Amino acid sequence: MTDEIDAELSEIEKMKEENQHLKRVIGDQGNQIGDLRKLVTESLPKEDDWDYDPQERELQSLKSEVGQIKQAEALRQLEQSYPGFRELPKNKEFLDWIQDSPVRADLYRRADSMDFNAAQEMLSLWREREKLREEMGVQVNTQRRQALKDATMEKGSAGGTRTKVYSRQELIDMRRFEPDKFSQLWPEIQKAYTEGRVK
């Protein structure tokens, strides 16, 4: 049974390493996109290369400045309403969620093109999903603890002493979430394995 626990822990470590690798790959792709955008921007003709009327040039400059101010204000409002939203494109779970729905993929594309209504809608949906998932996680954990408590029974022996019967899941959870307690109980856990008191 100890080998099974070690194998499961090894599997969890592999999954963590794969997750870190995917995050690095996504980060690298983001950098490549930034480099490509820079190349495209540099290859476009400069304003000075065109025959602009001075008033038209000034008007374009003012429009650009107003657009940048609006964009900065919209980004500030998004940051205020959804702190840390700029990190979401690095989150694999978020990207999978986006790709699972054509509607969300369209919202993401529009948000990336500075459509702040689309960004707000997408971030609002993500926040609702995360809240629901968190609430469900709390419920599941509460139910799991109760199930573990119910599943862990004590049996009486002929000598009148009581020996504890452990559930396999209880031991796995204890090793993951309460390693100090697991270490303290390790001699008793080993004994329970040898006596067949782990179900």
Can you walk through the features of this model?
There is one protein chain. With 199 residues, this protein is mainly alpha-helical. Helix content is 76%, strand content 3%. The chain is built from 7 helices and 2 strands, in the order αααααββαα. It has helices at 2-43, 54-81, 92-99, 102-112, 116-151, 168-177, 179-194; strands at residues 154-156, 162-164. Strands 1-2 form a two-stranded antiparallel ribbon. The relative contact order is 0.07.
Brief digest:
The chain has 199 residues and is mainly alpha-helical.
Output mean pLDDT. 79
Largest sheet: 2 strands, antiparallel
**Residue share in β-strands:** under 5%
Structural class: mainly alpha
Count of individual beta strands: 2
Number of helices: 7
Task: Map the helices and strands.
Layout (H helix, E strand, L loop, with lengths): L1 H42 L10 H28 L10 H8 L2 H11 L3 H36 L2 E3 L5 E3 L3 H10 L1 H16 L5
Antiparallel strand pairs: 1-2
Helix pairs in contact: 4-5, 6-7
Jot down its keywords.
199 residues, mainly alpha, two-stranded antiparallel sheet, 7 helices, 2 strands
